[in-house]
Amino acid sequence: DQQVKQNSPSLSVQEGRISILNCDYTNSMFDYFLWYKKYPAEGPTFLISISSIKDKNEDGRFTVFLNKSAKHLSLHIVPSQPGDSAVYFCTYSGGGADGLTFGKGTHLIIQP
Amino acid sequence: NAGVTQTPKFQVLKTGQSMTLQCAQDMNHEYMSWYRQDPGMGLRLIHYSVGAGITDQGEVPNGYNVSRSTTEDFPLRLLSAAPSQTSVYFCASSYSPTGNTEAFFGQGTRLTVV
């Protein structure tokens, strides 16, 4: 089974700087990793994804980097904005019907 | 465009009571699922459905029942509430459970069992 580990429960970054959120996984076989963003009292919303055949995916201020040899991926947010303050979940999407496997999340706090 | 609608938003139950958490989606998605989120944890899958009439268990199914009589609705039933079921519950839908498919989540139901 694939396990997804987000080892930093929280991260504080100054507005305008780069935010880097990290995620490790255990099983080399995978299809996609997806990042979801969650504000308090709301459900998670999709942010960006990366497939196993790529090492980078970019969407505006958000970039996902994948290092398959280290079984590690990271989400970069540049520049960080106050609206980026949220909990970010790294999730794994495999080939089965059991949907997404979530990491524990990282609470990103953007300080003015 | 309503997306995924969950009701109620908040609920307090006494131990042993039963209740149904409602979930409806208007995107004609075949795949629907229920998750629970506990403090310091990611979301964990309770039950899922790949279409009307088809349901299956996820990672933490004990104490919960589901049914899927229509494409739109996927209610979650707590049979006999226990304090361990105090959690935030999220319903999600997508056109597929696999691959690079965006899941749409409801706003959540915060349940407290006393």
Q: Runs of chain B with pLDDT <50, length 5+?
A: none
How much of the polypeptide of chain B forms β-strand, as a percent range? over 45%
**Record field, number of beta strands of chain B:** 11
Task: Determine the structural class of chain A based on helices, strands and strand pairing.
Answer: mainly beta
Shape of chain A: globular
Helix content of chain A: under 10%
Largest sheet of chain B: 7 strands, mixed
Termini gap of chain A: 41 Å
Counted by DSSP, the helix tally of chain A is 0
What portion of residues of chain B is helical? under 10%
Report the portion of residues of chain A in β strands.
over 45%
Count of alpha/pi helices of chain B: 0
Computed CA radius of gyration of chain A, to the nearest angstrom: 13 Å
Q: What would you call the shape of chain B?
A: globular
Unreliable sequence segments of chain A: none
Please give the largest β-sheet of chain A: 6 strands, mixed
**Which structural class best describes the helix and strand composition of chain B?**
mainly beta
Order of helices and strands of chain A: EEEEEEEEEEE
Q: State mean pLDDT of chain B (0 to 100 scale).
A: 95
Q: What is the chain-wise order of helices and strands of chain B?
A: EEEEEEEEEEE
Characterise the protein shown here:
With 112 residues, chain A is an all-beta fold. In chain A, 0% of the residues lie in helices and 54% in strands. Chain A has no helices and eleven strands. Chain A has strands at residues 4-5, 10-14, 19-25, 32-38, 45-51, 56-59, 62-67, 72-77, 86-93, 100-102, 106-111. In chain A, strands 2, 4, 5, 9, 10 and 11 form a six-stranded mixed beta sheet that branches. A five-stranded antiparallel beta sheet of chain A has the order 1-3-8-7-6, with no helix packed on it. With 114 residues, chain B is mostly beta strands. Chain B has strands at residues 4-7, 10-13, 19-25, 31-37, 43-51, 54-57, 64-66, 76-78, 87-94, 104-105, 109-113. In chain B, strands 2, 4, 5, 6, 9, 10 and 11 form a seven-stranded mixed beta sheet that branches. A four-stranded antiparallel beta sheet of chain B has the order 1-3-8-7, with no helix packed on it. In chain B, β5 (43-51) and β6 (54-57) form a beta hairpin. Chain B is globular, with a radius of gyration of 13 Å. Chain A binds chain B through residues 4, 6, 9, 31-32, 34, 36, 41-46, 49, 51, 89, 91, 93-100, 102-105, and chain B through 4, 31, 33, 35, 40-45, 48, 50, 56, 58-59, 90, 92, 97-103, 105-108.
